[in-house]
# Entry
Amino acid sequence: MIASYRDLEIYKRSFKMAMDIFWITRKFPKEEVYSLTSQIVRSSRSISANITEGWAKREYENVFKQHLIHALGSNSETENWLDFAFECNYLTKEDYQQLKDEINQVGKMLTKLHQNWKNYGK
# Structure
């Protein structure tokens, strides 16, 4: 039984991914602080935040599912900013690929939760 959003594997993975992105962006050039760095950190944090907010409202199917859709959008936005960071040579190929793989996995998990939300604790 899942008693809290913190019990959801998708929450744990998306939160960890956001923290990984946060720490990696600390190495970005200072001139990117108010543009690329803040954008990628915000969009990555928005994924787990939307899962959390949606979980609190899960009694209302459409509201819960809308938050999952927002989380999917933030996941895609994070991928876009990650592509920029890589093209600007702010990320190693290894870090880039690892984060891309995690973004893809998080996206799949969000889609599955959206499709099967009733199978999770109420």
Helices lie at 9-25, 33-56, 61-87, 93-115. The radius of gyration is 15 Å. DSSP finds four helices and no strands in the chain.
